[in-house]
Amino acid sequence: MNPLLDFSGLPRFAEIRPEHVSPAIDKLLSDNRALISRLVDDHSQPTWQNFIVPMEDANERLSRAWGPVGHLNAVMNSPELREVYNATLPKITQYYAELGQNLKLYNKFKELRNSTVYEGLGAARKKIIENELRDFRLGGAELPDAQKTRYLEIQERLSELSSRFSDNLLDSTNDFLLLIENKDELTGLPEDVLQAAKEAANDKFGSSDKPGWLFTLKAPSYMPVMQYASNRSLREQMYRAYGTRASEFGKQEWDNTPLMEEIIKLRGEEAALLGFENYGELSLASKMANSPQQVVEFMRELAQRARPYAEKDLAELRTFAKAELGIAELQSWDNSYASEKLREQRYAFSEQEVKQYFPENAVLPGMFKLVETLYGLQIKQASAPVWHKDVRFFDIRNDRGQLVGQFYLDLYARSSKRGGAWMDDVITRRRLPSGIQTPVAYLNCNFSPPVGNKPAVFTHDEVITLFHEFGHGLHHLLTEVEDMGVSGINGVEWDAVELPSQFMENFCWEWDVLHGMTRHSDSGEPLPRALFEKMVAAKNFQSGLQTLRQIEFSLFDMLMHSNFEAGGAKSILQLLDDVRSEVAVLIPPAFHRFPNSFSHIFAGGYAAGYYSYKWAEVLSADAYSMFEENGVLNPDVGARFRSEILAVGGSRDAMQSFSSFRGREPSLDALLRHNGLLETS
Ligand SMILES: [Zn+2]
């Protein structure tokens, strides 16, 4: 039997082979299509049992067969698997696109929504139906034929423009090469950066006749130059090249300016077709924030409160640069360099030193203990088929010993695994006729594996990453929802998804927690208090400036998508100038073309959504402040966080969940305080 078609329990990782993929997916897709046409052609009154349940079952089978394939492709990549994955992915995409455009299906949902059956459903089920209807509407299902054609044209053109935007940026980034032949010009750069530059030169020109160091505008080459190179004209040259990528200053064919105008114009037209005032409103229809105005006000208030600190940061930097570095007039290409020197002078401590206090066999039990204390749980290693010998599997049980959820933990980097850290769902909690199906998650990281017989040691950043992903995992695993569409992280608003993950990060800055989960890998001593204080101070270094920078991007993004006419009297660059004169303290030179490389909003999924980074930080910091007020290890507050936020998943609005937990609407104070941007008495 094909192991991908066995839905009786955990994925059978030991048996899954590339040749299983295509037959399993083809069968499920054809079964699902047959089922859906049967459902939509059935003329009886749609109910939860005769319509939604069979659809959920069918889509769950597909995602439980495809999930492990995508997972293995990401963590145990091989040429054979990659080939079959890439060949199958378009079939899956096509299937979901068909569902989204299936008008008969849409009508079935509407029929259910308008019947008396709907009134008898619980809140979670109502939410699932509302979400479905919303997604159909946002996908253009309501449009008359002529407008639908235009809508699809816009979609197609937008995806073409986004992909050209990225290509132009990549091409113009790759176009810049700077060969330095005299090492004296490279003073200040760390040895590993020089080594990489030397290798790049050798790769490019061959090792013998053209010795030197090659620099590019890729982050690992560009950033260290800006941060460490004492050669000011080198910094200026690189800064100019970087800040004018994909603009009118380079090759005309790579200029993103006309693309940006067209993208903004088309998004406006798309929003109008769907009946929204502007694209910002359309973007927020499926998010937690209510209106562009609310986001803009939120950013403006944050800017106002952070501004005095940013001004202080800048004044200190200028004074330091003048006195210590002989830089009389600080320019944009001096900022990172001077900041790095100031940071070294104030907060020198070694990452290597910190790392020795975070061995895996202290960190992991420490994190589990924290969660066990807060939520009254037990986490124990268990056994399950895995994809690699380093992968572990754990059971989470409640205080009565009942299984709540399970997760795989795959911590270390290896060549067959893609980079980054992420959580993914394996099985979602739901009620079946046989009882509750408990949820299962994957937690994946890319940390350094252990060397020799010693346990792996993590940097503090890696520990934060681990807590972050575990936070996503708990959101999925501690859900108490019984219907799949809003269980765990399903159906949670896009700008609220990072709340539980960023919330967990706070504990990594908590003395009471760190004290218990650190142990020097040689001496066995916990983290010293003085080192901890330094880490906290370094974390908040220049946080005023950094906050204003994020606000500048967020405000620019939201205003451009809600209160701006592309191709009108004002250019995109002028809009950015306006935003800067309102909120920024560091103003880049006139030649700088930031928008031309702002991929998040022109080529990524963050259009009218960039604010969500700060938004989620505010929510998570404010939620955490409830623990600070009542004791960070307080199980009563833990139980409340679990039941009001983690347990409810997407079954109700995120704002309602937040307010039920916190007892009020979110406030900016906790985030400001955590970032050192609030005077405390
Ligand atoms: Zn995250």
Summary keywords:
single chain, 681 residues, alpha+beta, Glutathione S-transferase Yfyf (Class Pi), Chain A, domain 2, Neurolysin, domain 3, 5-stranded mixed sheet, two-stranded antiparallel sheet, binds zinc ion
Oligomer: single chain
Q: State Rg.
A: 27 Å
Roughly how many Å apart are the termini? 68 Å
What is the name of the CATH class of the domain at 355-526?
Mainly Alpha
- Backbone shape: globular
Structural class computed from helices and strand pairing: alpha+beta
Can you characterise this structure?
With 681 residues, the protein is an alpha+beta fold. Among the domains are: 3-142, Glutathione S-transferase Yfyf (Class Pi), Chain A, domain 2; 173-254, no CATH class; 355-526, Neurolysin, domain 3 (Orthogonal Bundle). 57% of the residues lie in helices and 7% in strands. A 5-stranded mixed beta sheet has the order 3-4-5-9-6, sandwiched between helices. Strands 1-2 form a two-stranded antiparallel sheet. The longest helix is centred in the middle third of the chain and has 34 residues, at 292-325. Helix 17 packs antiparallel against helix 18 (499-505) and helix 18 (499-505) packs across helix 24 (612-630). The mean pLDDT is 95. The structure holds zinc ion. Zinc ion (ZN) binds at residues 468, 472, 498, 501.
Describe the secondary-structure layout.
Elements: H1 18-41, H2 48-75, H3 79-101, H4 103-113, H5 116-119, H6 123-138, H7 145-175, E1 178-180, H8 191-205, E2 213-215, H9 219-228, H10 232-243, H11 257-273, H12 279-284, H13 292-325, H14 335-347, H15 351-355, H16 360-375, E3 377-382, E4 392-398, E5 403-412, E6 422-427, E7 430-432, E8 435-437, E9 440-447, H17 460-477, H18 499-505, H19 511-517, H20 529-539, H21 543-560, H22 572-583, H23 599-602, H24 612-630, H25 635-646, H26 654-662, H27 669-674
Parallel strand pairs: 5-9
Antiparallel strand pairs: 1-2, 3-4, 4-5, 6-9, 7-8
Helix pairs in contact: 1-2, 1-3, 4-6, 7-11, 9-14, 13-14, 13-21, 16-19, 17-18, 18-24, 21-22, 25-26
This protein binds zinc ion.
Residues 468, 472, 498, 501 line the site of zinc ion (ZN).
